[in-house]
């Protein structure tokens, strides 16, 4: 009979991918909560109501949506536990550490989500909640990559100057993601009719967000062109091309949603695109280096004969 442990060892990569998928899922489900005005559907935390952990009675669809988002947390927890067990049995220190970070992120996000509810969806805590989710997506991408790599030393896969260009792109990308949360905090989708806004001018912060988006897009195009001109691994080119496609899609959705009054469906797709942007940027950053497997050293023991010469008188 196959043991559970051995099954987990053989499916380490699948669990790493599952970790990435569920962390993207929680971003989308959290966005649906906000966009449908269900942020306070369950008005307290950790219970949904003062009397129960689940919505019941007079509570409407908003409570069901908010409670459904909380249930996704349990799915993430289940995957995180399975991933950590598999990582621990693998014996690989780096995999264990990454799995531990994702596992600890689940209760941390649950507590932070509770704070957003208890502060009546303060836009700054909501923004922090989303950015932590984006960071967990980034960690999950690193986990997927490390599972596929040998446990060797990391060496540059691209020239040093290009590596710094990609690092700059990565930093600008995170600024873009954060400014996106600021734009949302100034706009109409507060998560609840009575939730506060951050008080900033939506038009001004949207313009600032767009400015950094164009900077990010320009840097990405530059990386794509440079990768075509120099000798880099195929996965590095694939990562750059993927990020470019994601950003073009994001830009198209962003402009359409802005000029059509921020319809819920398009904003949801834009939020999904933000999660994919975080993943693609991380994949590109990882593409600037590769790991070289440490060769196994065979110890050869040769038998030697000790010849003793005896001299007879």
From TrEMBL:
One Pfam assignment: COX15-CtaA
Associated pathway: Porphyrin-containing compound metabolism
InterPro entries: COX15/CtaA_fam, COX15/CtaA_HemeA_synthase
Coiled coil feature spans: none
Primary site of residence: membrane
Keyword set, alphabetical order: Cell membrane, Disulfide bond, Heme biosynthesis, Iron, Membrane, Metal-binding, Oxidoreductase, Transmembrane, Transmembrane helix
Residues passing through the membrane, by range: 12-33, 67-86, 98-118, 124-144, 164-184, 204-227, 239-258, 264-286
GO cellular component, one term: membrane
Top-rank taxon: Bacteria
Membrane topology: Multi-pass membrane protein
Chloroplast as UniProt keyword: no
Molecular function in Gene Ontology: metal ion binding; oxidoreductase activity
GO biological process: heme A biosynthetic process
Localization terms from the record: Membrane
Name the UniProt record assigns to this protein: Heme A synthase, cytochrome oxidase biogenesis protein Cox15-CtaA
Organism of provenance: uncultured Nocardioidaceae bacterium
